[in-house]
Structure formats: structure tokens, C-alpha cells
Amino acid sequence: MLGKKLTQRLRVGIVGCGAIGEGLALFIDSQLSDKINLCALADKDQQRAVKLQRKLRSVLSVVEVEELIKKVDLVVETASIEAARFILERALLYKKDMLILSAGALIENFPLLAQAEKAKINIYVPSGAISGIDGLGALSLGSIRKVSLITSKPPRGLIGADYLKRKKINLTNLKKEKVVFKGSVKEAVRYFPKNVNVAAILVLASSSQNVEVCIKANPNLKRNTHCIIVEAKEAKLSVTVENTPSKLNPRTSSLAILSVQYFFRKMFSNFKVGS
Ligand SMILES: NC(=O)c1ccc[n+]([C@@H]2O[C@H](COP(=O)([O-])OP(=O)(O)OC[C@H]3O[C@@H](n4cnc5c(N)ncnc54)[C@H](O)[C@@H]3O)[C@@H](O)[C@H]2O)c1
């Protein structure tokens, strides 16, 4: 779809009407409605979709996820890993392009990615809550030796994760920084599904499973911080992103919302900066 001249408005549907879904819907509605026909919303909590529908000028319907997939050219997932798994499968069936925010779902399912390629279905993954994906992507054509991600969060951003319960890690009243997890991306996705989209994006951008993940709880932090280190023959890259939580959902960074909005802005711009 990117790069192709679209002769009519692109039909887009959003699954998941929380912080990112709402931020994107409002952006399309106010800035891109001449290019995009935002025609459907879906949410497992239908009231959230109806609430968002009322804030928009676009005339659109609130439907079940499967119906939404059938109606649109591009399905946008801003919901959960579980929703992304369902969308991946059904969008393939109905031959629809998709944009996935819950990138962890893609890591579990490389065969589906191969099927999509065969069927010429586009899957877009915005850079979300991190930066440096352009450099990492470029280096994937060179020789990457190692990719590491250190994610540090205030304890409240991690409390409730199954892994912590299983390992009996208690973060209440934590006084200093504590490493809660070190391991592979696959394990991180399994144990921290709400916290590891960033790690998944690194795997997808670098085309390497060899991404080391370290998750830390730090009671002195106000912002979620991601430190990405890429060691390659051609360059060493260190990127630190300190994210401000979004107003609608403190677990989601404002940058993730802007990144999806920017993805659509770039799609329809004739002047594209950055690889
Ligand atoms: N790629 C990134 O960098 C990045 C950054 C932030 C968030 N995320 C991911 O994006 C997704 C959306 O984030 P958010 O902050 O907007 O979340 P949110 O909790 O604010 O909103 C999610 C919405 O999706 C709905 N939903 C959940 N599961 C669903 C399902 N199976 N079917 C239909 N609707 C469903 C919920 O009811 C809710 O309204 C999450 O999975 C989150 O982990 C990715």
C-alpha cells in the first residue's frame, strides 16, 4: 500500500478504542479524512467504541472484530496480544492489510508472517514506544552481533505480571532498583505480554532472535525508560528513550500514540524523511 497511488480513500478500521486507538481515530478524523475513510471501530468493551464514535465527525459503525476485518482495506490493531493473534489469522483469511501495535503476537507466529508475504498482504509495525528502528533496520542488512534492551519501569508498571507472582517477586515498597527478568524475547513475551512490545519490535526490525532482554523495576523512576544497544560491524548504536505516560492510559507512552499518527501522516506524504 505504501508507495502505491491510492485512487480512492483507504478504508480503515480500528480494533481497540483505548489510548492508542482513540489517539489515532481523532488524528485521522481531524487531519486525514480526505485520504482515509475511517469506517469502523471495534472493542471487546462495546461501550468504549460507542464513546469514541460519538467524539468523531466521521460516520462510522461499531461492529464485531470479524465484521470490521471484512469491511476495510487496512485493519489497525490497538487492543491486545490476544486481539492481534485473532486479527493476524482472520486478516490473512480475508486478505486484508494490517497494522499491529501488540507486536509480541508476531514473534510467536513467524509462519503466519511467511504466509502473509506469499499472499502479498502487508503487515505494518510502527516503531511505537522506541526510537532507532531506522538505524537498526539499516544495520540488519550489515552484520549485527548483538541487540540488547534494558527496560526500566516504576514498580506500578510491572505489578500484576504473572511472572512476578510465579517467582514470588514482591515490588511493593521497593526501595532501590531491582532486576526482575533477564532472558530471551520469546520468554519475555510469554511472561510480560503487556510490557514487551518494544522487545518484539527489535526482533522484527533486526531480523534476529538474538535479542537479550532485561527488565528492571525502579522506584525512583517517573518514566518508562528503554535503553537499546546494537553492536554491529558497521556501527554501534545506543538509544535511550524516556517516555512520558499518556493521559488516557499511564501504562502507554505518548510516543507510541504519536508514532502511529506519524505512520499515517508519512503514508500519505509525498516527502518522506528517514528510512
Ligand atoms: N508497540 C508499542 O510500542 C506499544 C506501545 C504501547 C502499547 N502497545 C500495545 O498496544 C495495545 C493498545 O494499547 P493501549 O494503550 O491503547 O491500550 P488500552 O488498554 O488503553 O486500550 C485497549 C483497548 O482494546 C480493547 N481490547 C482489548 N482486547 C481486545 C480484544 N481481544 N478485542 C477487542 N478489543 C480489545 C480494550 O477493551 C481497550 O478498550 C496494547 O496491546 C499495548 O500493549 C504497544
Structure description:
The protein is an alpha/beta fold. It has two domains: 10-128 and 256-267, NAD(P)-binding Rossmann-like Domain (Rossmann fold, 3-Layer(aba) Sandwich), CATH 3.40.50.720; 133-244, 2-Layer Sandwich (Dihydrodipicolinate Reductase, domain 2). It has eleven helices and eleven strands. The chain has helices spanning 19-31, 46-55, 65-71, 81-93, 104-107, 110-118, 133-139, 162-166, 185-191, 197-206, 254-267; strands at residues 10-15, 36-42, 61-62, 74-77, 97-100, 123-124, 144-153, 178-184, 211-217, 224-232, 236-243. The strands form two sheets. It has a six-stranded parallel beta sheet, sandwiched between helices. A hairpin with a 3-residue loop joins strand 10 and strand 11 (236-243). Helix 1 (19-31) packs parallel to helix 11. The longest helix is centred in the C-terminal third of the chain and has 14 residues, at 254-267. The mean pLDDT is 93. The structure holds nicotinamide-adenine-dinucleotide. Residues 15-21, 42-45, 48, 65, 78-83, 101-103, 128-129, 194, 197-198, 201, 249, 252, 256 line the site of nicotinamide-adenine-dinucleotide (NAD).
